[in-house]
Design brief:
The protein is of the alpha+beta class. It contains 8 helices and 25 strands. Strand 8 (about 300) and strand 9 form a beta hairpin. Helix 2 (about 40-50) packs across helix 7 (about 190-200), helix 3 (about 70-80) crosses helix 4 (about 100-110) and helix 5 crosses helix 6 (about 160-170).
Length: about 500
């Protein structure tokens, strides 16, 4: 659910031209052409304050000026925090030194905006209402939504239909009167300012799984076809999630305790007849899937036709014992890393069955992620994120070690019981700061909270106890063990 939106007079105003007399300088707005009581006045001030949409010179905002494609790319780039984008510009009509050049490069690489073909972007072309809806929808992660059809629904381009549904359901772009959307009409700067202000207040997190009945999702991994595998600590099973629909992948129903809760067990058998006690993490291994079964003290191996135990029957008799195995990660050579949490070590299992200790002396290591030749560890008991290179040297990637919830320089920032970690292709680290109920980002030596619950809005969709993390493309998937949700957050 979105936060309460500030749209009192907006629907009618979107269809009207600005006709109010303009003072020399309107008190409180900062612009000479924005009256204090204008329906977009608050939004114009908000966008200036947050660096999203600036004036056009000489204290003017130019509210009726059409929004161009270059302008839209620029404000979207600012909304994302102006992230860097490498590579050459793919458009011949965008000069490298243009004020919107970096934004166009970034928006094109992310897939939020595309060109017309033949190397053209059309940076000075006006943005249509359906184009604006589509760009915002892509940036939000292409969430599914349903809305009442407009009277001119048949005039909306097929590519923009789901976007228009979403922007209408979210209250971002309404009709222009007579239940019409006017997809080909242009958008003015005043309209864009209000949309940006309200879009900034939306939760960009969406729920991607129908798993919602007494479920405790923890680990998450991606299958080659794009489906997700999710471990469920409550039902003691592994789910397969495809296009928002969940189906059992491994694990069978077990007896219940006196409170009616599944007890789980241990049984190696066909996938849907096997029993788990506490499936924690899941990761690709040996052409199948490894699952850490924490309470059973083993790592299970899922083949297409059965369920086995890595340290007993899955590969060979390794003679390895675990004390509460949790986090799993696979490296580029196919080796598996296991957080042996209560022993304070991370173990490595090669495809040939060789076992070694990769890191030791840790305090309750949990979530793992292999990226760019290094292993990243969420040290839950130590409130830190660690990095272990090929030389097995352990360094601190973020966290002072003191329990807390402070952003800032990575070495000084504080976490509280982090259980999950994921690393993007550009080296950005994402942390499931579980006990704080937040998702944190480590970029350019700085820790920033990017997702947290707003105590003023009990209906907003935010994490309560994020645990497992997975990056797929431009999306961060978050397993929330307390809220019983699998969430998706578009990445900037």
């Amino acid at each position: 659910m979105s936060k309460k939106l500030r749209w009192a007079a907006l629907p009618a105003a979107l269809a009207l031209a600005l006709t109010l007399p303009l003072p020399v300088r309107a008190a409180g707005t900062g612009y000479s052409d924005v009256p204090q009581g204008a329906w977009y006045a608050e939004a114009a001030a908000y966008c200036r304050e947050h660096g999203l949409l600036y004036g056009t010179g000489e204290d003017r905002f130019s509210p009726e000026l059409p929004v161009s494609r270059g302008m839209l790319a620029a404000v979207l780039h600012r909304l994302a925090g102006s992230p860097a984008a490498a590579g050459e510009l793919p458009f011949t009509d965008v000069a490298p030194g243009a004020w919107y050049a970096d934004a166009v490069r970034w928006a094109g690489q992310r897939g939020y905006m595309s060109g017309y073909g033949e190397g053209l972007f059309g940076p000075e072309d006006p943005v249509t209402r359906e184009q604006l809806a589509a760009v915002l929808w892509r940036y939000a992660g292409s969430p599914a939504a349903q809305a009442e059809d407009f009277a001119d629904e048949g005039e909306i381009a097929p590519y923009a239909l789901p976007a228009v549904d979403w922007t209408r359901s979210a209250g971002l772009i309404s009709g222009v009167g007579d239940n019409r959307f006017a997809p080909g009409a242009g958008a003015a700067r005043s309209q864009l300012a209000v949309i940006l202000m309200n879009f900034s207040g939306l939760s960009r997190v969406t729920s991607v799984s129908a798993i919602d009945v007494m479920c405790q999702p923890c680990g998450v991994a991606a299958m080659p076809d794009g489906s997700l595998l999710v471990t469920d600590q409550y039902n003691k099973v592994i789910w397969r999630v495809t296009e928002g629909r969940s189906s059992p992948f491994a694990g069978a129903d077990t007896v219940e305790d006196v409170y009616g809760q599944p007890v789980g067990g241990y049984h190696d058998a066909a996938l849907l007849k096997s029993l788990f006690k506490d499936p924690w993490a899941i990761a690709p291994f040996l052409g199948g899937w490894a699952v850490s079964d924490a309470e059973n003290g083993v790592v299970r191996f899922l083949r297409p036709d059965d369920s086995g135990t890595v340290n007993r029957t899955g590969v060979t008799d390794l003679g390895v014992s675990f004390d509460h195995p949790t986090g799993l990660a696979a490296d580029d050579a196919g080796s598996l890393y296991v957080s042996d949490t209560f022993l304070g070590v991370v173990k490595k299992i090669t495809p040939a069955g060789q076992v070694s200790t990769w890191a030791s002396g840790l305090t309750e290591p949990m979530g793992l992620c292999w990226a760019d030749g290094s292993l990243y560890i969420a040290e839950c008991g130590g409130n830190r994120i660690l990095k272990v290179g090929g030389d097995k040297k352990v360094t601190v990637a973020a966290g002072s070690g003191t329990e807390g919830e402070a952003d800032g320089p990575a070495a000084q920032a504080s976490f509280s019981g982090p259980k999950g970690v994921a690393v993007a292709a550009d080296g950005t680290i994402y942390v499931a700061d579980t006990d704080n109920g937040t998702v944190r980002r480590v970029r350019d030596g700085q820790v920033t909270t990017i997702l947290s619950r707003d105590p003023r809005d009990v209906t907003a969709l935010f994490p309560a106890a994020p645990t497992g993390l997975l990056i797929q493309g431009n999306t961060l998937y978050i397993s929330d063990t307390f809220a019983r949700k699998l969430l998706a957050l578009p990445l900037d």
